[in-house]
Each structure stands twice: as structure tokens, then as C-alpha cells.
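Researcher: Quick test of sequence recovery. C-alpha cells follow.
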């Protein structure tokens, strides 16, 4: 009799275990963390912390303004910001730097061709992504974005420093010229406006897209005709640690706008910064192969009369 009860008890336990497994199997799939993606260009704060402690040929670049850097930064970081990696040859600001200028700016920060560069800022890595976009097109691919940047780093309780260290200057050379593999210029974009197979993504705010707001540097309000509006902030946990949303959430965001892996995509914003982040999301996290960023973006587009513009009517209060 005892053996019969024991046998029934074992069966009951097996039934409960199988039932629980079935419940888990039937449960909705949870979003995978962005670290599960295969991109070599993204690293989380824990892995970055470990790398900083153990890697020899590594330089951290803080892509923020001087006052924010002085208030606190990752230990050992060197500061770099927009004027350091933008061209000085255009009548308007924001175009990518020439090869020689960027080589110089990296060299004086202790970087050579064998150096692994870790990039971060405090706005969800928009500025870090812009610099990444330049580096890989010049052929330096030893570069990582720290997911969530300075915000994620501080929220995780990791060490912050106010010490400003002078780097030992190195000689830096890119392996080749800017290859434009992730870039499109104004004339090429203008010629593609009637190509229905191309999707143009405006990564700016609602008010910029509609023309209600005109930011410094632009001459007119509105957007490029036919552009789909997907504000870059929706790619980030903007009310949290500024890390990227999960791949599933990002995929849903773009698919809701008719943008998928087979789309031929062009991103733009005000000056190619926010749109560089959107390109990073589409290419590196989602793996969409055909994505290019318009370097000059709205600042350049509005300076040429031949560039068509759409804007939404602004309702005035009576």
C-alpha cells in the first residue's frame, strides 16, 4: 500500500512539473536584451568596466561639452566634442571632419591605429554614434559604444572621476579615405526623391518635422518631401538609463512605419547627429543592411533653393 501511495505521489509531482513547464512555454516571449545582438560595436556598462580594467590598448572618449566633462567622467577618459570632428571648410557647421583633422584629434588623445576606442555621451549616445559613424567609414573599426553612456554608467554605481589626465600623444593614421559606405550627399538624395523604393526617415522632433520650430543653422522649417517621421528618442529608454530598447521593441517601432529589413533607408536630422544614432539602431542592432545617413541633413538641405520642402500648416489660436 505504501509503495502505491509513493508511486502516486511521484506521478503527481511529475504532472505539476510538466504543467509548470507548459505554462512557461506558453507564456509570451520576453524582450531580449540588446546585448544579445551580434554587433561588435556595442558594449554594456559591466563589460566596459571590465575591459577598462584589463585592456592595454584602450582609450575612452567622452563626447560631451567641457563643463559636463569637468563635473565628472569615466576614469581616464579623454574629452572630444563636435568642433573637434567637424569640417572647417564649409560655410555651415556640422559636416564630417576631413581625414587629416580627425587623425590629429585622435592622435593627441593617445590613440593610434591599434587602439580600441570606447565612446559615450549623456544623451543616449547620439554624439558618440556620430563619431562612430565617421570612424568606421575612415576604416577604424576598433570602436565600441557604451550602451546607455554616462547615464547608465552612473546609475549602475560605477566609479566617476574629476581628474583630467593629459594623454601621451600618438601618431594616428586611418587605413583609407572616407568611403561613404554609410553616407549620402545632398545631390544624390535629391536625385532619389522620386524613387519609391527608398524610405527617408526624419529623426527629429515633432515640432521640427512640422516646421513649427527652426533650430539654429537651418534657414527654413519643415521636412524633406515624403519623409517618414520616427523621432530617435523612441529608440531609447529615455526616462531611464538611456540604453537602447530591446530589438523586438525597436523592430516593432520601425515596422509600424512600414520600415523593414528589405527597405532601402536614408536617415537625416538637423545635422546628421541624431540620424547617426538611428542608423546605428537599424544597421547594427536590427541588422538592416541598406541604411545611409545624410551628412548635411536639414542644415544643408535648407540652404539650396533646389531642395524641395514640405511643412505642415500651423494652426493659430483665435
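Model:
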Amino acid at each position: 500500500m505504501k509503495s502505491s501511495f509513493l508511486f502516486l505521489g511521484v506521478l503527481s509531482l511529475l504532472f505539476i512539473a510538466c504543467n509548470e513547464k507548459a505554462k512557461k512555454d506558453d507564456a509570451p516571449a520576453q524582450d531580449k536584451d540588446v546585448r544579445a545582438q551580434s554587433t561588435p560595436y556595442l558594449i554594456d556598462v559591466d563589460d566596459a568596466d571590465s575591459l577598462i580594467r584589463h585592456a592595454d590598448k584602450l582609450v575612452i572618449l567622452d563626447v560631451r561639452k567641457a563643463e559636463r566633462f569637468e563635473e565628472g567622467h569615466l576614469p581616464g577618459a579623454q574629452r572630444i566634442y563636435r568642433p573637434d570632428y567637424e569640417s572647417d571648410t564649409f560655410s555651415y557647421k556640422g559636416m564630417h571632419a576631413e581625414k587629416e583633422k580627425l587623425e590629429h584629434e585622435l592622435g593627441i588623445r593617445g590613440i593610434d591605429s591599434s587602439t580600441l576606442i570606447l565612446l559615450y555621451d549623456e544623451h543616449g549616445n547620439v554624439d558618440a554614434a556620430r563619431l562612430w559613424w565617421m570612424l568606421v567609414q575612415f576604416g577604424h573599426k576598433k570602436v565600441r559604444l557604451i550602451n546607455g553612456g554616462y547615464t547608465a554608467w552612473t546609475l549602475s554605481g560605477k566609479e566617476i572621476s574629476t581628474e583630467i589626465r593629459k594623454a601621451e600623444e600618438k601618431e594616428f593614421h586611418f587605413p583609407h579615405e572616407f568611403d561613404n559606405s554609410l553616407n549620402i550627399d545632398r545631390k544624390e538624395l535629391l536625385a532619389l526623391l522620386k524613387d519609391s523604393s527608398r524610405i527617408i526617415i526624419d529623426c527629429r522632433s515633432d515640432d521640427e518635422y512640422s516646421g513649427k520650430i527652426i533650430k539654429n543653422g537651418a534657414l527654413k522649417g519643415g521636412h524633406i518631401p515624403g519623409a517618414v517621421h520616427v523621432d530617435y528618442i523612441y529608440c531609447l529608454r529615455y526616462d531611464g538609463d538611456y540604453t537602447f530598447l530591446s530589438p523586438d521593441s525597436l523592430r516593432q517601432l520601425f515596422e509600424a512605419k512600414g520600415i523593414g529589413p528589405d527597405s532601402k533607408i536614408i536617415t537625416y536630422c538637423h545635422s546628421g547627429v541624431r540620424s547617426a544614432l538611428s542608423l546605428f539602431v537599424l544597421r547594427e542592432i536590427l541588422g538592416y543592411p541598406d541604411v545611409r545617413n545624410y551628412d548635411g541633413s536639414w542644415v544643408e538641405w535648407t540652404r539650396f533653393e533646389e531642395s524641395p520642402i514640405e511643412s505642415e500648416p500651423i494652426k493659430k489660436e483665435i
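Residues 183-301 form a domain with the Oxidized Rhodanese; domain 1 fold (CATH 3.40.250.10).
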